[in-house]
Amino acid sequence: MALTQDDIARIANLARLELNQNESERMLTGLNQFFEVVEQMRAVDTSSVTPLSHPVAAIQEIALRLREDVVSEPDNREANQKSAPAVEKGYFLVPKVIE
Predict the structure, then answer these.
(1) Within a domain: residue 71?
(2) How many independent structural domains does the chain possess?
(3) What HAMAP family does the record point to (predicted)?
(4) Residue 30 has what pLDDT?
(5) Buried b / exposed e across 21-47, counting CB within 10 Å, b at 16+?
(6) Domain residues for 4?
(7) How far apart are CA 53 and CA 12, in angstroms?
């Protein structure tokens, strides 16, 4: 897929850019080179490559620093609800705000 000068003019118009002829030609060359690289990348067969969870995983083992999913705080619901204006069955009651 190669862009034309008309494409560059349309893109510049949409982006509200004023490009002179030199800038337009330079933009055309740069974008077409970019699309060539994209086409080369799309041509590579990656069907046998295992996806990585992190780029560094390709060169070293990664250990995720996650903590255990355990409750560490005590249940203070009743104490927290003592100052609430209205409570029912352990839930805070609030005025209806949507009709």
Answers:
(1) no
(2) 1
(3) GatC
(4) 97
(5) eeebeebbeeeeeeeeeeeeeeeeeee
(6) 1-44
(7) 37
